[in-house]
Design goal:
Aspartate Aminotransferase, domain 2; Aspartate Aminotransferase, domain 1; 3-stranded antiparallel beta sheet; 2 domains
Protein backbone atom coordinates (compact mmCIF):
# COMPACT_ATOMS: atom_id res chain seq x y z
CA UNK A 1 0.00 0.00 0.00
CA UNK A 2 2.89 2.33 -0.81
CA UNK A 3 1.76 2.51 -4.42
CA UNK A 4 1.24 6.26 -4.36
CA UNK A 5 5.02 6.41 -4.11
CA UNK A 6 6.20 3.57 -6.31
CA UNK A 7 3.85 1.58 -8.50
CA UNK A 8 5.16 -1.84 -9.43
CA UNK A 9 6.42 -1.97 -12.99
CA UNK A 10 4.54 -4.15 -15.49
CA UNK A 11 6.68 -6.93 -16.95
CA UNK A 12 6.71 -5.26 -20.38
CA UNK A 13 9.14 -2.67 -19.03
CA UNK A 14 11.97 -5.23 -18.97
CA UNK A 15 11.71 -5.76 -22.72
CA UNK A 16 11.54 -1.98 -23.12
CA UNK A 17 14.83 -1.44 -21.29
CA UNK A 18 16.46 -4.14 -23.42
CA UNK A 19 15.07 -2.51 -26.56
CA UNK A 20 16.63 0.81 -25.58
CA UNK A 21 19.99 -0.87 -25.02
CA UNK A 22 19.72 -2.60 -28.39
CA UNK A 23 18.89 0.63 -30.20
CA UNK A 24 21.78 2.46 -28.52
CA UNK A 25 24.23 -0.35 -29.28
CA UNK A 26 23.21 -0.78 -32.90
CA UNK A 27 22.48 2.83 -33.87
CA UNK A 28 24.98 4.80 -31.74
CA UNK A 29 24.43 8.52 -32.42
CA UNK A 30 21.75 7.68 -34.97
CA UNK A 31 19.52 6.69 -32.06
CA UNK A 32 18.65 10.37 -31.61
CA UNK A 33 16.80 10.29 -34.94
CA UNK A 34 14.61 7.47 -33.64
CA UNK A 35 14.17 8.98 -30.18
CA UNK A 36 13.24 12.46 -31.42
CA UNK A 37 11.50 11.31 -34.58
CA UNK A 38 9.47 8.35 -33.24
CA UNK A 39 9.65 7.72 -29.50
CA UNK A 40 9.17 11.22 -28.11
CA UNK A 41 6.25 12.04 -30.43
CA UNK A 42 4.60 8.72 -29.49
CA UNK A 43 4.95 9.52 -25.78
CA UNK A 44 3.65 13.04 -26.32
CA UNK A 45 0.61 11.65 -28.15
CA UNK A 46 -0.04 9.28 -25.23
CA UNK A 47 0.13 12.11 -22.69
CA UNK A 48 -2.03 14.40 -24.83
CA UNK A 49 -4.65 11.68 -25.23
CA UNK A 50 -4.70 10.99 -21.49
CA UNK A 51 -5.11 14.66 -20.55
CA UNK A 52 -7.13 15.78 -23.62
CA UNK A 53 -4.47 18.26 -24.69
CA UNK A 54 -4.86 19.65 -28.22
CA UNK A 55 -1.20 19.76 -29.28
CA UNK A 56 1.19 16.92 -28.31
CA UNK A 57 4.16 18.97 -29.53
CA UNK A 58 3.65 21.31 -26.54
CA UNK A 59 4.64 18.60 -24.05
CA UNK A 60 8.22 19.05 -22.82
CA UNK A 61 10.25 16.16 -21.40
CA UNK A 62 12.87 15.97 -18.64
CA UNK A 63 14.19 13.45 -16.09
CA UNK A 64 12.23 15.12 -13.27
CA UNK A 65 9.63 17.83 -12.77
CA UNK A 66 11.99 19.93 -10.66
CA UNK A 67 14.18 20.51 -13.72
CA UNK A 68 11.18 21.69 -15.70
CA UNK A 69 9.87 23.95 -12.94
CA UNK A 70 13.27 25.51 -12.34
CA UNK A 71 13.60 26.10 -16.07
CA UNK A 72 10.25 27.91 -15.94
CA UNK A 73 11.36 29.94 -12.91
CA UNK A 74 14.53 30.90 -14.77
CA UNK A 75 12.41 32.62 -17.42
CA UNK A 76 11.46 35.37 -14.94
CA UNK A 77 13.70 38.43 -14.65
CA UNK A 78 15.19 38.14 -11.18
CA UNK A 79 16.44 41.71 -11.36
CA UNK A 80 12.78 42.65 -10.85
CA UNK A 81 10.34 41.76 -8.04
CA UNK A 82 8.98 38.23 -8.28
CA UNK A 83 5.79 37.36 -6.41
CA UNK A 84 4.65 33.74 -6.21
CA UNK A 85 1.35 32.36 -4.92
CA UNK A 86 1.15 28.76 -3.75
CA UNK A 87 -0.18 26.59 -0.91
CA UNK A 88 1.35 25.17 2.24
CA UNK A 89 0.78 21.62 0.91
CA UNK A 90 3.30 21.44 -1.94
CA UNK A 91 5.89 18.70 -2.34
CA UNK A 92 9.33 19.13 -0.76
CA UNK A 93 11.16 19.79 -4.01
CA UNK A 94 9.16 22.88 -4.93
CA UNK A 95 8.75 23.97 -1.30
CA UNK A 96 12.52 23.81 -0.73
CA UNK A 97 13.25 25.71 -3.94
CA UNK A 98 10.89 28.49 -2.90
CA UNK A 99 12.52 28.79 0.50
CA UNK A 100 15.89 29.18 -1.20
CA UNK A 101 14.50 31.79 -3.60
CA UNK A 102 13.00 33.70 -0.69
CA UNK A 103 16.53 34.38 0.50
CA UNK A 104 16.68 36.87 -2.39
CA UNK A 105 15.40 40.29 -1.40
CA UNK A 106 13.13 40.66 -4.44
CA UNK A 107 11.29 37.31 -4.15
CA UNK A 108 8.06 37.14 -2.16
CA UNK A 109 6.00 33.98 -1.62
CA UNK A 110 2.47 33.75 -0.25
CA UNK A 111 1.32 30.32 0.91
CA UNK A 112 -2.42 29.71 1.26
CA UNK A 113 -3.24 27.07 3.91
CA UNK A 114 -4.85 24.02 2.31
CA UNK A 115 -7.20 23.49 5.26
CA UNK A 116 -10.07 23.86 5.57
CA UNK A 117 -10.38 22.25 2.15
CA UNK A 118 -13.95 23.37 1.50
CA UNK A 119 -12.90 27.05 1.46
CA UNK A 120 -9.53 26.55 -0.26
CA UNK A 121 -10.78 27.43 -3.78
CA UNK A 122 -12.30 30.71 -2.63
CA UNK A 123 -9.28 31.68 -0.53
CA UNK A 124 -6.76 30.81 -3.24
CA UNK A 125 -8.70 32.54 -6.02
CA UNK A 126 -9.25 35.67 -3.94
CA UNK A 127 -5.50 35.91 -3.33
CA UNK A 128 -4.78 35.15 -6.99
CA UNK A 129 -6.88 38.08 -8.18
CA UNK A 130 -5.97 40.52 -5.43
CA UNK A 131 -2.19 40.27 -5.72
CA UNK A 132 0.22 41.05 -8.53
CA UNK A 133 1.68 37.56 -8.92
CA UNK A 134 3.99 36.51 -11.71
CA UNK A 135 3.51 32.82 -10.88
CA UNK A 136 0.84 30.70 -9.20
CA UNK A 137 1.52 27.05 -8.33
CA UNK A 138 -0.78 24.42 -6.84
CA UNK A 139 -1.06 20.64 -6.66
CA UNK A 140 -4.01 18.86 -8.21
CA UNK A 141 -3.76 16.28 -5.39
CA UNK A 142 -1.78 17.20 -2.29
CA UNK A 143 1.11 14.84 -1.58
CA UNK A 144 0.70 14.94 2.20
CA UNK A 145 -3.07 14.55 2.59
CA UNK A 146 -4.17 12.88 -0.66
CA UNK A 147 -6.99 15.43 -0.96
CA UNK A 148 -7.73 16.78 -4.43
CA UNK A 149 -7.73 20.59 -4.70
CA UNK A 150 -11.48 21.29 -5.16
CA UNK A 151 -12.30 22.99 -8.45
CA UNK A 152 -8.66 23.70 -9.33
CA UNK A 153 -9.08 23.36 -13.10
CA UNK A 154 -12.09 25.68 -13.13
CA UNK A 155 -10.20 28.16 -10.96
CA UNK A 156 -7.22 28.04 -13.35
CA UNK A 157 -9.49 28.94 -16.27
CA UNK A 158 -10.23 32.25 -14.52
CA UNK A 159 -6.66 33.19 -13.63
CA UNK A 160 -5.39 36.72 -14.38
CA UNK A 161 -3.85 37.10 -17.84
CA UNK A 162 -0.54 38.35 -16.46
CA UNK A 163 0.02 35.42 -14.09
CA UNK A 164 1.64 32.20 -15.24
CA UNK A 165 0.12 29.17 -13.50
CA UNK A 166 1.48 25.69 -12.85
CA UNK A 167 -0.63 22.70 -11.84
CA UNK A 168 1.40 19.94 -10.20
CA UNK A 169 -0.38 16.82 -11.41
CA UNK A 170 2.00 14.21 -10.05
CA UNK A 171 -0.53 12.57 -7.72
CA UNK A 172 -3.36 12.92 -10.24
CA UNK A 173 -1.82 11.91 -13.56
CA UNK A 174 -3.03 8.43 -14.54
CA UNK A 175 -4.98 8.27 -11.27
CA UNK A 176 -7.80 10.81 -11.51
CA UNK A 177 -9.49 11.47 -14.87
CA UNK A 178 -8.25 14.89 -16.01
CA UNK A 179 -9.42 16.98 -18.95
CA UNK A 180 -7.15 19.95 -19.64
CA UNK A 181 -8.71 20.94 -22.96
CA UNK A 182 -10.28 24.14 -21.59
CA UNK A 183 -7.06 25.38 -19.96
CA UNK A 184 -4.38 23.91 -22.23
CA UNK A 185 -3.23 27.39 -23.27
CA UNK A 186 -3.60 28.89 -19.81
CA UNK A 187 -1.50 26.64 -17.56
CA UNK A 188 1.64 24.57 -17.34
CA UNK A 189 0.88 21.02 -16.17
CA UNK A 190 3.61 18.79 -14.73
CA UNK A 191 3.68 15.09 -13.88
CA UNK A 192 5.69 11.96 -14.57
CA UNK A 193 5.78 8.21 -14.96
CA UNK A 194 7.19 7.23 -11.56
CA UNK A 195 3.95 6.92 -9.66
CA UNK A 196 0.61 5.93 -11.16
CA UNK A 197 1.73 5.13 -14.69
CA UNK A 198 4.05 2.51 -13.20
CA UNK A 199 6.97 3.12 -15.57
CA UNK A 200 9.61 4.16 -13.07
CA UNK A 201 11.61 7.29 -12.43
CA UNK A 202 13.35 9.43 -15.03
CA UNK A 203 10.50 10.39 -17.39
CA UNK A 204 8.58 13.56 -16.55
CA UNK A 205 6.78 16.15 -18.62
CA UNK A 206 5.32 19.64 -18.62
CA UNK A 207 2.60 20.86 -20.96
CA UNK A 208 3.20 24.36 -22.30
CA UNK A 209 0.61 26.92 -23.48
CA UNK A 210 0.80 27.33 -27.26
CA UNK A 211 1.17 31.11 -26.96
CA UNK A 212 4.13 30.88 -24.54
CA UNK A 213 6.97 33.29 -25.36
CA UNK A 214 9.03 32.85 -22.18
CA UNK A 215 12.79 32.55 -22.64
CA UNK A 216 14.24 30.27 -19.95
CA UNK A 217 17.66 31.29 -18.66
CA UNK A 218 18.25 27.62 -17.86
CA UNK A 219 18.39 26.11 -21.34
CA UNK A 220 20.26 23.18 -22.88
CA UNK A 221 21.44 22.02 -26.28
CA UNK A 222 18.31 19.96 -26.88
CA UNK A 223 16.51 23.31 -27.25
CA UNK A 224 18.48 23.78 -30.50
CA UNK A 225 17.90 20.23 -31.72
CA UNK A 226 15.91 21.37 -34.76
CA UNK A 227 18.57 23.85 -35.89
CA UNK A 228 21.73 22.21 -34.56
CA UNK A 229 23.50 21.86 -37.92
CA UNK A 230 22.53 25.37 -39.05
CA UNK A 231 23.13 27.21 -35.79
CA UNK A 232 23.48 30.97 -36.06
CA UNK A 233 24.38 33.60 -33.49
CA UNK A 234 22.16 34.42 -30.55
CA UNK A 235 19.89 32.28 -28.41
CA UNK A 236 16.70 31.43 -30.23
CA UNK A 237 13.70 29.46 -29.03
CA UNK A 238 11.19 27.40 -30.93
CA UNK A 239 7.46 27.49 -30.43
CA UNK A 240 7.06 23.87 -29.38
CA UNK A 241 8.30 21.82 -26.42
CA UNK A 242 11.95 22.45 -27.27
CA UNK A 243 11.55 25.93 -25.75
CA UNK A 244 11.82 24.18 -22.36
CA UNK A 245 14.19 21.40 -23.39
CA UNK A 246 17.33 20.61 -21.43
CA UNK A 247 20.26 18.42 -22.31
CA UNK A 248 21.37 14.81 -22.66
CA UNK A 249 19.45 12.27 -20.61
CA UNK A 250 18.87 8.53 -20.40
CA UNK A 251 15.87 7.60 -22.50
CA UNK A 252 15.31 4.08 -21.22
CA UNK A 253 12.49 5.52 -19.00
CA UNK A 254 10.87 6.80 -22.21
CA UNK A 255 10.87 3.30 -23.68
CA UNK A 256 9.40 1.93 -20.42
CA UNK A 257 6.65 4.55 -20.34
CA UNK A 258 5.71 3.82 -23.94
CA UNK A 259 5.56 0.09 -23.19
CA UNK A 260 3.14 0.68 -20.31
CA UNK A 261 0.97 3.03 -22.36
CA UNK A 262 0.84 0.43 -25.14
CA UNK A 263 -0.02 -2.32 -22.67
CA UNK A 264 -2.91 -0.36 -21.19
CA UNK A 265 -4.22 0.47 -24.65
CA UNK A 266 -4.09 -3.21 -25.68
CA UNK A 267 -5.86 -4.27 -22.48
CA UNK A 268 -8.46 -1.50 -22.69
CA UNK A 269 -7.32 -0.04 -19.37
CA UNK A 270 -8.12 3.67 -19.04
CA UNK A 271 -7.67 6.27 -16.33
CA UNK A 272 -11.43 6.20 -15.82
CA UNK A 273 -11.46 2.44 -15.26
CA UNK A 274 -8.43 2.61 -12.96
CA UNK A 275 -10.01 5.38 -10.91
CA UNK A 276 -13.33 3.53 -10.61
CA UNK A 277 -11.50 0.38 -9.51
CA UNK A 278 -9.49 2.26 -6.88
CA UNK A 279 -12.62 3.96 -5.53
CA UNK A 280 -14.11 0.50 -4.94
CA UNK A 281 -10.91 -0.50 -3.11
CA UNK A 282 -11.16 2.60 -0.95
CA UNK A 283 -14.78 1.91 -0.08
CA UNK A 284 -13.94 -1.64 1.03
CA UNK A 285 -11.07 -0.27 3.09
CA UNK A 286 -13.33 2.27 4.81
CA UNK A 287 -15.89 -0.43 5.60
CA UNK A 288 -13.21 -2.62 7.17
CA UNK A 289 -11.80 0.36 9.04
CA UNK A 290 -15.18 1.35 10.48
CA UNK A 291 -15.82 -2.22 11.65
CA UNK A 292 -12.40 -2.54 13.31
CA UNK A 293 -12.47 0.59 15.53
CA UNK A 294 -8.68 0.86 15.32
CA UNK A 295 -7.09 3.38 17.74
CA UNK A 296 -5.22 5.22 14.95
CA UNK A 297 -6.71 4.12 11.63
CA UNK A 298 -10.15 5.64 12.02
CA UNK A 299 -12.29 8.44 10.62
CA UNK A 300 -11.26 10.89 13.33
CA UNK A 301 -7.64 10.65 12.21
CA UNK A 302 -8.31 10.34 8.48
CA UNK A 303 -7.64 13.58 6.59
CA UNK A 304 -10.76 13.73 4.47
CA UNK A 305 -12.66 16.12 2.28
CA UNK A 306 -14.97 14.26 -0.12
CA UNK A 307 -14.47 10.53 0.26
CA UNK A 308 -16.67 9.75 -2.72
CA UNK A 309 -14.45 11.51 -5.26
CA UNK A 310 -12.40 14.21 -3.56
CA UNK A 311 -9.18 12.27 -3.07
CA UNK A 312 -6.30 10.89 -5.00
CA UNK A 313 -5.40 7.22 -4.69
CA UNK A 314 -4.20 7.25 -1.11
CA UNK A 315 -5.48 8.07 2.36
CA UNK A 316 -3.52 9.89 5.05
CA UNK A 317 -3.94 9.44 8.79
CA UNK A 318 -2.77 11.76 11.54
CA UNK A 319 -1.11 9.55 14.15
CA UNK A 320 -0.47 12.18 16.80
CA UNK A 321 3.31 11.88 16.70
CA UNK A 322 6.11 10.68 14.47
CA UNK A 323 6.73 7.88 16.98
CA UNK A 324 3.15 6.64 16.66
CA UNK A 325 3.37 6.71 12.87
CA UNK A 326 6.69 4.87 12.88
CA UNK A 327 5.35 2.19 15.24
CA UNK A 328 2.20 1.70 13.17
CA UNK A 329 4.23 1.47 9.98
CA UNK A 330 6.41 -1.19 11.60
CA UNK A 331 3.37 -3.15 12.82
CA UNK A 332 1.87 -3.10 9.34
CA UNK A 333 5.17 -4.22 7.84
CA UNK A 334 4.99 -7.21 10.17
CA UNK A 335 1.72 -8.12 8.44
CA UNK A 336 3.42 -7.79 5.05
CA UNK A 337 1.66 -4.47 4.41
CA UNK A 338 3.94 -1.84 2.91
CA UNK A 339 3.16 1.83 3.48
CA UNK A 340 5.02 5.08 4.12
CA UNK A 341 4.88 8.05 6.45
CA UNK A 342 5.77 11.72 6.62
CA UNK A 343 6.52 12.68 10.22
CA UNK A 344 3.24 11.98 12.09
CA UNK A 345 1.33 11.24 8.88
CA UNK A 346 0.86 7.66 7.69
CA UNK A 347 -0.13 7.16 4.04
CA UNK A 348 -1.90 4.12 2.60
CA UNK A 349 -2.23 3.80 -1.17
CA UNK A 350 -4.56 1.86 -3.45
CA UNK A 351 -3.75 0.41 -6.84
CA UNK A 352 -5.04 -1.48 -9.82
CA UNK A 353 -3.13 -4.57 -8.71
CA UNK A 354 -5.01 -4.94 -5.42
CA UNK A 355 -7.34 -7.91 -6.01
CA UNK A 356 -11.09 -7.43 -6.09
CA UNK A 357 -11.54 -9.85 -3.19
CA UNK A 358 -9.18 -7.85 -0.94
CA UNK A 359 -11.15 -6.68 2.11
CA UNK A 360 -8.19 -4.88 3.78
CA UNK A 361 -9.27 -6.41 7.10
CA UNK A 362 -5.75 -7.69 7.69
CA UNK A 363 -4.59 -4.13 8.39
CA UNK A 364 -6.73 -3.92 11.49
CA UNK A 365 -6.23 -7.37 13.02
CA UNK A 366 -4.20 -7.71 16.21
Amino acid sequence: MACHSHHYWPDVTLDAVNAYWQDAAEMADSKWDKIFGEKIPAFQRGIASTLNLPDPAQIALAPNTHELIYRLLSAFDLSKPLRILTTDGEFYSFARQLMRLEELSNVEVERIPTEPFDTLPQRFEQALHSGDYQLAYASQVFFDSGVAFPGLLELAARKPEGTEMVIDGYHAFFARPTDLSAIADKVFYTAGSYKYLGAGEGMCFMSIPRNCQLRPLNTGWFAEMAELENRTGGVGFGNDWLRFAGATMDYSPLYKALAVLDLYQQEGITVDSIHAYVLQNQRRFLAAMDAAEHPLLNRDNLIAYDLDNGHGHFFTFRCGSAENAELLQSQLRGKNVLCDRRQQLLRLGFALYHPEEETFARLFCE
